[in-house]
Amino acid sequence: MKTVKKVESNIVFNVIAKGILIILAAVILIPVWNVVVMSFSSSTALAEGNSYFWPAEFSLENYQAVLRDDAIIPSFMVSVAKTVIGVVTHVFFCSLVAYGMSKRYLKGRKIYTAFFVITMFFSGGMIPTYLLMKSLNLINSFWIYIIPAMFSYYDMIILMNFFRNVPDSLEESVTIDGGGPWTIFFRLILPLSKPALATIALFNGVGQWNDFFTAKLYISDKSLYPLQMKLYAIIVQQEFSSMQNVPGSVVLQTSSRGMQLATIVVTTVPIIIVYPMLQKYFVGGIMLGAVKE
Amino acid sequence: MQKRHGYKYHLKEFKKQLPYQIMVWPGIIFVFIFSYIPIYGILIAFKHYTIIDTMSSAKWVGLDNFRIVLGDKYFWQSVYNTLGISFLRLLIGFPIPILLALLIHQINDGIFKKFVQTVSYLPHFISWIVLGGMIISWLSTTGVLNQLLIFIGISAENKTILLNADAYWGLAVISDIWKEAGWGTIIYLAAMSGIDKTYYEAATVDGASKLRQIWSITLPLIKTIISFQFILTVSGLLGSNFDQTLVLKNTQNISRAEVISSYTYEMGMVQGDFSYATAVGLGISIVSTVLLLVTNVLTNRLNDESIL
After folding, report:
1. Which residue among A21, A94, B34, B301 sits deepest, i.e. has the most Cβ atoms within 10 Å of its Cβ?
2. Of B32, B2, B36, B5, which Cα lies nearest the Cα of A107?
């Protein structure tokens, strides 16, 4: 009874596969949950090390400390600003170039393409780029987050290919109604390309929110620190002074741990909440990039 | 026979397309400024360039900077750490997304599948700074890991993995896999979903088990994408994770934690030795390109096809 044996071995396979995947999910969710739980624990509970899967002593004190800190809210605003402004400018700029490049009859298109492609293989490196930013007066400026991030050849390619799929007849109908390329771009192409634009926006947005390197390299002005940089300062350099504004508070070593954790949760919660809803965009984005290989 | 077009024709054509040209040229200018101009700065690798110098005032020293770099034991230590971590990550971390994708691909339960996939992407969206903070919390003396070990009875006292240099490579690799394995399945699942279902149906009729089907159908058909990912990974062997290193390193584990990118940052931006850092950057770029080409050629031989 060969077929019966094979069906049994398939069932075993399925059970093992599901088991492994459940362990995978647990290995990811449990530690993260632990961090959230500890952030809601009082400092005494943390000192005793009792909160693992539920706060031994529930407390909002860590979050209160975070709100009291006069540098966390500004950092949050910096992160929001750089993400929103950065994404909008990036998507617009890449789309603009992509639309021009999508016209196969564009004069010099092959030269432009070569010009872009070469930069994927050669780059100046950390120091020459730093010196360039310095000469452009972007050091310690908010615009360092925005301007160098405006264009990405890779994103432009994805949009260009997407635009090429818009039927010529649609563009022609706008032309017949008296519209020029700019009208076509704003009134036809952009609205039709929402999925591709959303994908690019998503990847870029995550990049902006999680970006640490730009601030570390180019910013020393603390008022321009994004949340990631502020978090780095807390964790590695342990600057708690701005959080201890309450007179007479007792500073325990583990209370600083609680505040670190609350800051961590605040820093990462926006993305954690948003990403599950946008799965189809980033999964599709990877496919777009892969299919073009 | 076509008449050869004069420049007037081309000019007229160009003017007709002016709107499109205007759309493209900002991109050209942008790339020129932000990608090409820094390439000129590579010359710094051949000069003695101090913070107060300019390109013209800095003295030409030829290959001296490279000699200094190659003679620096801390540089070689960072290379050792980079290669060690990268190789471990390749060995352990490269197959894992493939294996996970194979498992997920086999699951028919739609809700379970979606749930597992969604959860698996979560660590990718956590930044290294956040993750570093979490790791420090988990591995601290009162953290989850230690309590777990004590509970199981493995250790009677608190271990300090974070301060242990020998543990760093393992820590870096495992945390990186934890963070990126789920995300890495996407591209393999995309490739697997392109496989014609009738192959599997025919195999089931022939009595092939799922394992057999994976081995004979799935794996061979995604060979191309695996090779491509492999080439990308190997060519990035000399690359290192700046964010991860900066948040996990400390004075106790630095002998095993300092990698090329963090060491370059230290030498170039903290100590201001621009020449040194640029020389390292240039050297690493060249070696990485060679690695890319060599791996591509080797994979061609194995696969009888070209990826690039």
Report:
1. A94
2. B5
Q: Is residue A78 part of a domain?
A: yes
- Looking at the fold, whether A99 and A191 belong to one and the same domain comes out as yes
Chain A hits for B285, Cβ within 8 Å: 122-123, 125
Mean pLDDT computed over A130-141: 94
Closest approach of chain A CAs to the CA of B228, in angstroms?
9
Which chain B residues are closer than 8 Å to A13 by Cβ?
A: 106, 209-211
**Taking CB atoms and an 8 Å limit, are B38 and A125 in contact across chains?**
yes
DSSP string across A78-101: HHHHHHHHHHHHHHHHHHHHHHHH
Identify the pLDDT of residue B56: 81
**Reported CATH class of domain B68-303:** mainly alpha
Q: Phi and psi at residue B70, in whole multiples of 5°?
A: -65, -20
Angle at B271 between CA A128 and CA B68, to 5 degrees: 80
Q: Which residues in chain A touch residue B109, judged by CB atoms under 8 angstroms apart?
A: 18
* Residue A266 predicted with pLDDT over 80: yes
Q: Which parts of chain B sit beneath pLDDT 70?
A: 1-3, 141-142, 155-159, 304-308
Contact A128 B123 (CB under 8 A): no
Give the pTM.
Answer: 0.87
Q: What is the pLDDT of residue A139?
A: 95
Residue A246's pLDDT is what?
Answer: 42
User: What pLDDT does residue B260 have?
Assistant: 94
Supply the range of the domain harboring residue A251.
2-69+240-286
Most B CBs within 10 A among A1, A3, A15, A21, hence the mutation to make, goes to A21
Helix (H, G, I), strand (E, B) or coil at B60: strand
- CA nearest A227: which of A90, A18, A108, A83? A83
End-to-end Cα spacing for chain A: 46
Residue A268 lies in a domain: yes
Residues 144-203 of chain A with CB under 8 A from chain B are 148, 150-151, 153, 156, 180-182, 185
Compute the distance between CA of residue A180 and CA of residue A280 in angstroms, rounded to an integer: 34
Examine the domain organization and report whether A16 and A92 are in the same domain. no
Report the distance separating Cα B116 and Cα A29, nearest Å. Answer: 11
Q: What is the pLDDT of residue B36?
A: 93
Enter the ipTM: 0.86
- Which of B20, B226, B278 to mutate to probe the A interface, most A CBs <10 Å? B20
Which residues from A are below 8 Å from B47, CB to CB?
none
CB B180 within 8 A of CB B123: yes
Q: Are residues A77 and A216 in the same domain?
A: yes
Burial of B189 per CB tally in 10 Å (0-12, 13-18, 19+): buried
